[in-house]
Write a structure and sequence with these properties.
- By secondary structure, the chain is of the alpha+beta class.
- The chain folds into 2 domains: 13-97, Winged helix-like DNA-binding domain superfamily/Winged helix DNA-binding domain (Arc Repressor Mutant, subunit A, Orthogonal Bundle); 120-234, Muramoyl-pentapeptide Carboxypeptidase, domain 2 (2-Layer Sandwich).
- Helix content is 50%, strand content 16%.
- Strands 4-5-7-6 form a 4-stranded antiparallel sheet, covered by helices on one side. The chain has a 3-stranded antiparallel sheet with strand order 1-3-2.
- The protein is elongated and about 75 Å long.
Length: 246
């Protein structure tokens, strides 16, 4: 491909979809935004087709594709059969799909409302307990065992990968107390209407970190705080490793 231009100012995956109102033009520039929107609407396209749609040269299209490819937003796919030599096609990646607003929060909220209406509050609580078990099972393998700071660091990394922008912070230099701070909530709208989700999530973290710690949560984004904060305190005389069954 041709020489690269300035890199795309792509957003963090969680921040890009948090409001659903991110401007592609502001993120990518007018031409690359038009290119991405066309690929999103029409699927894989050749350089010639993109050049005709955008009204620019094939060389310019390849330059823009190179920048988008470097940012992981566009990838070359299988050539399309033509009357002559097969032409290479380009399509959006899964990462690029995150630039477009989704309605998962609305779908989840409606599903919980339907569950509450048909099964009652107890049905909702049974679902949340089931979700807690699945979440804990998925996280325990990523967290593993070892010293508490290392476990919490791995838990924060797993949560950040899921879009929760988590980090670990000490409470004080002379105290073995740590805080798990989540600065973004990927399910904020749902959690605001169903605060039980926050309590069950904290219970999942306690299970994953193990029986040698006490975990409490008093601040949540859904409750109006700027971050979800879990305080983790070691239990005296408890075993050193996590006990997911505790």
């Amino acid at each position: 491909m041709a020489a690269r231009t300035a890199p795309v100012a792509t957003p963090d995956a969680a921040a890009a979809s948090a409001s659903g109102a991110v401007s592609l033009v502001g993120l990518l520039g007018e031409t690359r935004a038009a290119l991405v929107e066309h690929l999103h609407a029409e699927g894989a396209r050749t350089v010639a087709e993109l050049a005709a749609h955008l009204g620019i040269s094939a060389v310019a299209v390849r330059r823009h594709l190179g920048v988008l490819g470097d940012e992981g937003l566009v990838a070359e796919c299988a050539p399309r059969a033509t009357a002559g030599r097969p032409a290479a096609c380009f399509a959006l990646t899964d990462r690029a799909a995150r630039l477009f607003p989704a309605s998962y929060d609305r779908f989840a909220r409606e599903a919980l409302e339907y569950l509450t209406a048909t099964e009652g509050r107890q049905g909702l609580l049974r679902f949340l307990r089931w979700r807690l078990d699945r979440e804990a099972d998925a996280l325990v393998a990523a967290v593993g065992d070892g010293p508490l700071p290392e476990r919490m660091a791995r838990l924060a990394a797993a949560l950040s990968a899921a879009g929760f922008a988590a980090e670990v912070a000490p409470v004080a230099a002379d105290r073995p107390v740590l805080q798990l701070v989540q600065r973004h909530c990927a399910i904020e709208d749902v959690a605001r209407e169903h605060p039980e989700i926050c309590a069950h999530e904290a219970a999942a973290f306690a299970r994953v970190l193990g029986g040698d710690v006490r975990l409490s949560r008093r601040e949540t984004i859904a409750g109006g705080a700027t971050a979800c904060v879990c305080t983790v305190v070691p239990r005296d005389g408890a075993p050193p490793g996590p006990d997911p069954a505790a």
